[in-house]
Design goal:
single chain; 69 residues
């Protein structure tokens, strides 16, 4: 069981997969860079912070219509 030679078809398949992976990594890198730029812009105070309402009156109300009688 020695080393087996790589055929041209196998090599082309590996090349295609590698090119696809490279393109995906480039896309992810661009997204990460864009997120970093957006986060930096928010820290500069150019945008208003996102306001979140405090819960205040959040209560769970039981619904008796689903209970068996």
């Amino acid at each position: 069981m020695g080393d087996q030679p790589v055929t041209r078809a196998e090599f082309e398949g590996i090349t295609t997969t590698l090119n696809t992976l490279t393109a995906q990594m480039a896309t992810l890198t661009t997204q990460v860079n864009n997120n970093a730029i957006n986060n930096n812009n928010r820290r500069d105070g150019r945008e208003e912070p996102i306001r979140v309402r405090n819960g205040g009156n959040n209560r769970i109300i039981e619904d008796s219509s689903s209970e068996e009688e």
